[in-house]
Amino acid sequence: MSYSLDFSVVIERLPELLLACLATIGLAIAGMALATVIGVLGVIARRSHIAWLRAIVIGFVELIRNTPFLVQIFFIFFALPQLGIRLNPTVTAIIALALNGGAYAIEIIRGGVDAIPKGQVEAGLALGLHKAQIFRFIVLKPALRAVYPSLTSQFIMLTLTTSVCTSIAAYELTSVAQKIEADTFRSFEVYFSITILYLIISSLMMGFFALVSRISFSYPVK
Amino acid sequence: MASIGFNELYFLLQGLKWTVALTIIGFIGGGIFGLLVALARTAESKALQRVTTGYIAIFQGTPLLMQLFVVYYGVALVGLNVDAWIAVAIAFTLHASAYLGEIWRGGIQAVPKGQTEAAKALGLHYTSRIKDVILPQALKISLPATIGFLVQLIKGTSLAAIVGFVELSRAGQIVSNQTFRPLTVFAIVGVMYFLICWPLSLWGARAERRLQTAAR
Q: Is the CB of residue A154 less than 8 Å away from at least one CB of chain B?
């Protein structure tokens, strides 16, 4: 056994890898933003009076949460063209991340909205606030604050999940790493290094989320 | 275009067998090591706490796919000449041990402190205190999250497909390439995963509701 580690290939191609990190972060941000939109719309639909709309949302959430992301992205990328819908890898990746993250976001946000005591909304009505004000100050902000920790850890998961997008050759960190590995055969060195890059990305995001929480939600509860 | 007949379905079921096997190995191995991680994480020793906190943070802060790649190529590097599926099983075990360790840590810490104090006052030694007093309560509290992670692990085994391991997802990819019917094949594969994961998810949700009612 005389394998010696050689990280020079990684250092040599670090600019490529760092650029790919930005692509990964870009995919993650697009996924998170769309997932939040799906989450909020999904919760509104889930609370509507239209039975079939509620059923669709429940079915969507259960379907997405009980099948692997890999199968979902394969389905969008390989199966939809059979129905005449052809998308490029990056668009596919963003849609898959948004749908997957959205299903989790619906469940998480629903929990937060359900936790708001009905009396608070009634109190708002009694104070003469209008509907939009009640939604914004009494429902949305406390709900967001309540779900913030679970929502952001779900976002970190989403960011880590972007690595699976390599399976359809979307441009992001893992696919670039696989290309470098194929060129150099330094598998362990390449994957070990980008694992550290992922760790840095997720740590930075956690730090950012903690900062936002301290700025936006630092008012006292009682 | 070839059709999907008995042979294709049989091939998918073979893949499903490996998905289930990987999940069971990962869950049992991860359960054993995860328990050690949880106990070390809640131990009184500061050093043990710090090491396990780091261990958990690394596994929760990196993609499962990278953990698979690093272990897969890493075991060969340290001179272990093992089968691909053993390397993959090791990776899932490590992954599961960190997540289960963190879940059970939460469970252990949710047991009221008075329980430990009472056990100490009764003169129970460490093993008995953990085994007979703390863990039964902690595991009950952590049951919903543990089931949730099991579902996550089942779905996670699909990533073994990317390292070339033929489990359900990879089997689906192969059948899809042979028959040119990705829509049908991936729908079948999705349904197979769903049929395993959904009952577990329902069980987890029920366990959580029961726990909330009990807490009230």
A: no
Per the structure, the complete domain to which residue B161 belongs is given by 17-165
Give this prediction's pTM: 0.91
Q: Does A68 touch chain B (CB under 8 A)?
A: yes
- pLDDT digit string, tens, across residues A154-178: 999 999 999 999 999 999 999 999 9
Percent of chain B with pLDDT over 90: 85
Helix%, strand%, coil% for chain B, nearest 5? 85, 0, 15
Assigned domain for B171 exists:
no
Q: Is residue A222 part of a domain?
A: no
* Interchain pair A70, B61: CB under 8 A: no
Chain A residues 44-63 with a CB less than 8 Å from chain B: 62-63
pLDDT (tens digit per residue) in A3-39: 788 888 889 999 999 999 999 999 999 999 999 999 9
DSSP B162: T
Residue B5's pLDDT is what? 86
Please report where in the chains the tokens 């902000």 appear, as a residue.
A141
Whether ipTM exceeds 0.85: yes
Question: Which of B61, B154, B181 comes nearest A202 by C-beta?
Answer: B61
Residue B7 falls within a domain, yes or no? no
Which CA distances in Å does B189 have to A11, B11, B20, B172, B177? 40, 11, 14, 6, 14
